[in-house]
Amino acid sequence: MKRAIWFAWAVGMFVCATQAQPVPEFTISEPVSLFAETETKEAGLAVNTQENEVLFVTIDTVAIGEDPITGEPPQQAVVGFYYDTATMTQMGDPITIVGNPRGALQKLSVTYNSVSNRYFVAVAADGYSPNGSRVPLMAIVNPYSVAQTAGPIFKAWSWDPETTVNYQDTAVAASTRNGNLIYVSEYSPPGESEGVIGLLYDKDGNLLTPEMTRLDQLEPERDEDDPDVYYLEKNDVFLFITNIDPSTSKNRITCTIIQPTPGADGKLQQGNQQIVSELRKDFDAGHPSAIENPYTGEFIGVLDYANGAEGGDIFYFNIGPAPNYLLTQSREQIPYLEAAGNVPFSQRHPRLALDTKNGVFVISHNARDGSFQGMVFTLLGPEGQILPGRPDDLYKLVETSAPVSHDANYHDVKYDPRSGSFLIIYSTGDGFTDVVKLTVRTNYLPASTEHWSIY
């Protein structure tokens, strides 16, 4: 009851505040290219909260150096770049994180672990197993201060290297309390098209769940796609989000709460998989992303329709208390982009980040096959609603010479408090990986928010 009363009051306060919200002012930097002398694909970034650095990662499709796991020359390799984002200058040389001597790499993901002050990287390696199946590769990367003396790679390994199934879309997250690391991935179990599994490691990369856990609980024989995972510090749990293909409707978005420690059976402890989105349009919903809203106690999610050809929506949900963690819709779902085919453009895989200084959320997404080609964005105020002044076809972040792929893991966004900017990294079809800084100058936080608590 106390939480419900607080929530109603807080939302009411925000509704009043939004009536007088100004149009946001912001600046966009010139793009900075990573590893421009070679060809790259996919992109990710992780912000170090203890040292003045960000780790940018991409996949070098030409590949130099040696694979840290096998010692062999790779055909493709995950490369990392330490950057001082205040000046956007690179620190040291590019580093080879993992490589694939037997083929290509895909589905790159990275997160920062504040407990160990290291980074966790995962990717899928085509043709890696003896029978040619796709295998997960993982690595823990030291910060630049340690890498200068101890080397950049703390540990690198493959998981299930002799598998007969394929692993694909990957996502990782780290607990800020115990430092445990979660890995989730699509995979192709026998007799099924797509499933999703999860693994849990400790902060040093020691496997805590020797037996993988199936995360697709609702009609597991149907397809699951586009997994992502986040750590929720206030609840001390992971939030797993994916889309499913139910037999009763178009694709829907679901979430599952996962504990940061394994169960007695050696598997992940997961709650019920629950649907968190509506179908405002009669198309498949997919490619979800979500973020906690500390100002309202809700969660904000985003999805696209028809593989990005029919725009996309923002949805809002609450997480109930343990042990059931009931997920409920908290308000009406709204569009962040109304589109039809290539009008104004197609877009896919929206991503979310929060500027904690100004109380502004950003949705970053790509645009192609229409009136604009490049990266676009939408800004939300602290109540999670679209801020005034945005064009119908979204703010243009950067126009690119070749489109940013609609595939997973080709762009990412994080807020960097040291530079006071959103960092958007993206990889284009002509082999370039660039970073742009988006700096919001308008503050939307009411003065009273510093005293609010959701408990």
Describe the overall structure.
Strands 1, 2, 28, 29 and 30 form a 5-stranded antiparallel beta sheet that branches. Strands 15, 16, 17, 18 and 19 form a 5-stranded antiparallel beta sheet that branches. The chain has a 4-stranded antiparallel beta sheet with strand order 3-4-5-6, with no helix packed on it. It is built from 2 helices and 30 strands. It has one domain (2-451): Neuraminidase (6 Propeller). It is mainly beta. A hairpin with a 6-residue loop joins strand 11 (167-174) and strand 12 (181-187). The chain has helices at residues 2-18, 144-150; strands spanning 26-28, 32-34, 40-47, 54-60, 76-84, 89-100, 105-113, 118-125, 135-141, 153-158, 167-174, 181-187, 195-201, 213-214, 224-232, 237-244, 252-262, 268-270, 274-275, 285-292, 299-305, 312-319, 327-337, 351-355, 360-367, 374-380, 395-399, 411-416, 421-427, 433-440. 52% of the residues are buried.
Which SSEs are present, and which pair or pack?
Elements: H1 2-18, E1 26-28, E2 32-34, E3 40-47, E4 54-60, E5 76-84, E6 89-100, E7 105-113, E8 118-125, E9 135-141, H2 144-150, E10 153-158, E11 167-174, E12 181-187, E13 195-201, E14 213-214, E15 224-232, E16 237-244, E17 252-262, E18 268-270, E19 274-275, E20 285-292, E21 299-305, E22 312-319, E23 327-337, E24 351-355, E25 360-367, E26 374-380, E27 395-399, E28 411-416, E29 421-427, E30 433-440
Antiparallel strand pairs: 1-30, 2-30, 3-4, 4-5, 5-6, 7-8, 8-9, 9-10, 11-12, 12-13, 13-14, 15-16, 16-17, 17-18, 17-19, 20-21, 21-22, 22-23, 24-25, 25-26, 26-27, 28-29, 29-30
